[in-house]
Amino acid sequence: MNPSTNNQTIKKLIKQELPGLMKTDRKIRAWILQLTKEQLTGKFNEIETKTESRFDRLLEELKRDREEQSRKWDEQNRKWDEQNRKWDEQNKKWEENQKEIRKLYDGLEKYWKDSNRKLNTTVGALGARWGLRSEGSFRNALKGILADLDLKVEHIDDYDEEGMVYGKPSSVEIDIIIKNGQLMICELKSSVSKADMFTFYKKTLFYEKKYHRKGDRLIVISPMVEIKAGVAAEELGIKVFSYPEDIQEEL
After folding, report:
1. Alpha-carbon span 246 to 116, nearest angstrom
2. Which of 182, 187, 160 is nearest to 171 (CA)?
3. pLDDT higher than 90, residue 197
4. Cα 154 to Cα 175: distance, rounded to the nearest angstrom
5. CA angle centred on 12, ends 5 and 37, rounded to 5°
6. Closest by CA position to 185, among listed 166, 210, 205, 171
7. Rounded to an integer, what distance in angstroms lies between the CA atom of residue 187 and that of residue 203?
8. What pLDDT is recorded for position 131?
């Protein structure tokens, strides 16, 4: 008999007889169930193994994707931080530039203000010298500038009975400034000659004797001081200033 035909005959016989045996023969039924269980268990294990493998691959892919996304976010955050840092630096430079510009502007404003004052003072001195303006107006202008500098000028008009200043009894006018407890005896004049400088020095002696108080500083403020008058001032201990603003350096 052909083996193929024999196998088919056996399969046919099993299909015919097996259902009946499963119902009537307990051992056959148990054997078939055991055999089926072993087959199914192997299939289930194989399926479970494949499922776990696919699940592990999926988890690994998700993990890689998450790590890649996290890396991209970190890189983007670093770029943002770098950009913010650059913006902060730029803003800081801008603020510093604005401060420098403001400082320069304030300096220029002060410079022009002082320059205009000095120019006006000089022009006023020329006018007073040539008789175009009175000496009193010039002195009042200087007092106004000193007042702006928080220096109050007190005018003293007294009578020199002994003739210490002019060689005979006469009225003597002198200005003083008191600042921080210091007494400054002043002469405000559009122009000063050598004789004017000696006259001012005699005025200071008269004041000190009259009021029993020695001047801490002897000051002449004038935009026009003759050379000989400047030499005399050094010999007499008198400080000469061309403009009222220059006094602040001495305080």
Report:
1. 14
2. 160
3. yes
4. 6
5. 120
6. 205
7. 9
8. 41
**Residues contacting residue 61 through CB under 8 Å, at least 6 positions apart:** none
Sequence spans of domains, the chain: 1-98, 134-250
**Cα–Cα dist 227/235, whole Å:** 13
What residues have CB less than 8 Å from 200, skipping those under 6 apart? 187, 192, 218, 220, 238
| Matching CATH number, 134-250, of 3.40.1350.10, 3.40.50.11540, 3.10.180.10, 1.10.3980.10 | 3.40.1350.10
Return the SS3 of 191. coil
Torsion on CA atoms 134, 140, 145, 148, rounded to nearest 10: -160
Which residue reads 């004041």 in tokens? 207
How far is Cα of residue 83 from the mean position of the Cα atoms in its chain? 21
Which residues, in sequence order, are CB contacts of 230 under 8 Å at separation 6+? Answer: 240
User: If residue 239 lies in a helix (H) or strand (E), which one and from where to where?
Assistant: strand 238-241
Q: Are 241 and 219 in contact (CB under 8 A)?
A: yes
Q: Which of 14, 224, 16 is nearest to 129 (CA)?
A: 224
Q: To the nearest whole percent, how much of the chain has pLDDT over 70?
A: 67
Taking only the tens place, the pLDDT of each residue in 120-148 is 555 444 444 434 345 666 777 777 778 77
Cite the beta strand spans of 39-169 per DSSP E.
153-160
Hey, what are 82's tokens?
């770098």
